[in-house]
Every structure is written in structure tokens, then in C-alpha cells.
Specification:
With about 260 residues, the chain is of the alpha/beta class. The protein is built from eleven helices and nine strands. The strands form two sheets. Strands 2-1-3-4-8-9 form a six-stranded parallel β-sheet, sandwiched between helices. Strands 5-6-7 form a three-stranded antiparallel β-sheet. Pfam families: Abhydrolase_6.
Length: about 260
């Protein structure tokens, strides 16, 4: 078993794995293996499903655990619903497997969340939002979810203007189907492992008040949640990479004590 768990990095809706580049380079400099996962729902296919996103993350986790490597799943925004669902059955607690020198499998040790929510088993992403899109995006007849407000202001308002504009050009088409369906693939994995949550206090896509409310609901259901805050937009991995990395490393240390 390797000394440090592998970090599986799951981006949010509309976003590519590149959004993790700043963070992964800093983590890799400290000998962490980082595996960013490209979600099928952002590949330009309007038929891509939530289940396919879950399978993509699950396959990345299994590629590590079957080699005996423990894993921490790091999720952002919509990626939280995906990552939480993907860990089903891959944690030591749920499999009732005590640590053993004969145990050659790795396990998911915990989830690191930022600007995300706590999905419920059997509940689709849209139903978790109350059954309809928020004002920031709409369901389009094209089969894609369309952002309805200036995306730089929504996601990257605390980045320098040119850098924020650059990330806007990197946004992907987001399959609407993945956001609107797939409750049968949804799983409340945050109940199975400890969770560290980074609340983004300047978030305009997912207001911090809503983040805090959901954290409290999770805590009230006896979930093991550790809360930290960062003065950041919806994208702390871009605007506050060092603080984000420090948070991830602190979380991993707590999972591996």
C-alpha cells in the first residue's frame, strides 16, 4: 500500500479536467498522485447520462483500489453528486472489512468537497435542487444546459479579467440529461466516509448561505463533516489554489491518521 492515497479529482458541470491543473501540480510536487476525471456529460454528447459520469469516476477509483492504493475523492460543484455516488461499496465501512495485513485492496478513505451539495440516494441532481434549474442556467431544447448569466461573473469573478475570460472559453457543453435524470444511480456516499467541506464565501453560483445550510443538514443526519471556509468565488481551485491545496492535504491527513 502506498504511503499517500491517490486523489481522484472530479470537476463540476461545464468544466474540464484542466480546472484542476493548478491544484494537481502543487499536490504532485508533494508526491501525491492526482487522477482528474473527464465527465462524459461534458464531452459534447447530449445523450450522456449521470450514470455514465458516475461510472467514469468509479472506474478511476477502481483502477487504484484494485492495485492496493487507497483513494480520496475530491469533488467540485455538480461533481459532488457524481463522486458521492461513485464510491458505493468501495469504502471499508460499507464492506465491513477490518484493516488487515492480508487485505490487499485499497479503499475510499474520505471525500473532499468544495462548493458542492449532499445528494440523497435515489434522488436525481435536479430533484435535489427542488425539481427545476436555478436562475443561472436553463434547460434548452438542444439537449444541453445553457448558462443564462455572464459565466465569468458566475464562476470566476475573483480571477484577473483576462484569466477569467480564458476560463470562460474553456467551458464545455453540458448534457442536460445528466442533470435532469439518473436518480437510480445517485447514492449518498457522504454518509459512508468522513467528509471535509470547503465553503466558498464569495460564491455567486452557489451562495455560501446555501452551502452552510446543507452542511448543517448533513451534520444533523450524523454525517462526519469537517467545515472550513475560503474567501473565494465558485472556483477556489483556480482563484485560491494554495489555500485549496492546504485544505486538501489537511483533509487527507485526517483521513489517514
Amino acid at each position: 500500500m502506498s504511503d499517500k492515497p491517490t486523489l481522484i479529482l472530479v470537476p463540476g458541470a461545464w468544466h474540464s479536467t484542466e480546472t484542476w491543473d493548478k491544484v494537481s501540480s502543487l499536490l504532485e510536487a508533494q508526491q501525491y498522485k492526482c487522477v482528474p476525471v473527464a465527465l462524459p456529460s461534458t464531452a459534447g454528447n447530449d445523450s450522456a447520462t449521470f450514470g455514465e459520469d458516475v461510472d467514469a469516476v468509479r472506474d478511476s477509483i477502481a483502477a487504484e483500489t484494485t492495485q492496493g492504493h487507497d483513494v480520496v475523492v475530491v469533488v467540485h460543484s455538480y461533481g459532488g453528486a457524481v463522486g458521492q455516488s461513485a464510491i458505493k461499496g468501495l469504502t471499508r465501512v460499507k464492506q465491513n472489512v477490518p484493516p488487515s495485513s492480508n487485505d490487499q485492496s485499497g479503499y475510499v478513505l474520505g471525500i473532499v468537497m468544495m462548493a458542492s451539495g449532499f445528494g440523497q440516494t435515489g434522488v436525481s441532481f435536479i430533484d435535489g435542487l427542488g425539481g427545476k434549474p436555478p436562475p443561472s442556467w436553463r434547460a434548452d431544447p438542444s439537449g444541453f444546459a445553457i448558462i443564462t448569466v455572464p459565466p465569468r461573473e458566475l464562476f470566476y469573478h475573483d480571477l484577473p479579467e483576462a484569466e477569467g475570460d480564458y476560463w470562460v472559453t474553456k467551458l464545455k457543453k453540458q448534457s442536460l440529461k445528466a442533470l435532469m435524470e439518473g436518480g437510480e444511480h445517485s447514492y449518498a456516499g457522504w454518509k459512508d466516509v468522513p467528509v471535509w467541506f470547503l465553503a466558498c464565501t464569495e460564491d455567486k453560483a452557489f451562495p455560501v448561505q446555501a452551502q452552510m445550510m446543507l452542511v448543517q443538514v448533513a451534520k444533523d443526519s450524523n454525517a462526519n463533516i469537517t467545515l472550513r471556509e475560503v474567501e473565494s468565488s465558485h472556483s477556489p481551485m483556480l482563484s485560491r489554489p494554495k489555500e485549496t491545496v492546504d485544505f486538501i492535504i489537511e483533509a487527507v491527513a485526517s483521513f489517514t491518521e
